[in-house]
Design goal:
This protein is an all-beta fold. The protein has no helices and eleven strands. It has strands at about 5, 10-15, 20-25, 35-40, 45-50, 60, 70-75, 80-85, 90-100, 110-115, 115-120. Strand 5 (about 45-50) and strand 6 form a beta hairpin. The protein is globular, with a radius of gyration of 13 Å.
């Protein structure tokens, strides 16, 4: 079993950038594809994007495409979510999740979840 811990959330102003980290323990993260999700207050959980085990493939939701970038450093057991040009509507708790199947993230499925980190974007 792999345990995930997100960090890097905080309060930022619109138009700025923030990088979230997802660190794995228990099992090496290179065994898993990793996805990012978010949930805004009063809204359903939303897929943000995902990265394959090697980092060779990524996909992003249309709402964040061209602004957000997912990368990974398997030597550090860490996946990153770089968020640029943040908007108030990006305010949410951000979760990372791990899965054997990269394509499963497109339908919101994952086997392992972190506890989330809050990102607040002010206008």
């Amino acid at each position: 079993q792999v345990h995930l811990a997100e960090s890097g959330g905080g309060w930022v102003q619109a138009g700025t950038s923030l990088r979230l980290s997802c660190v794995a323990s228990g099992r090496t993260l290179s065994r898993y594809a990793v996805g990012w999700f978010r949930q805004a207050p009063g809204k359903e959980r939303e897929r943000v994007g995902a990265i394959s085990r090697t980092g060779g493939s990524t996909w992003y939701a249309e709402s964040v495409k061209d602004r957000f970038t997912i990368s990974r450093d398997n030597a550090k057991n860490t996946v990153y979510l770089l968020m640029n040009a943040l908007k108030p509507e990006d305010t949410a708790v951000y979760y990372c999740a791990a899965n054997d199947d990269f394509t499963a993230f497109r339908v919101g499925l994952a086997n392992y979840w972190g506890q989330g980190t809050l990102v607040t974007v002010s206008s």
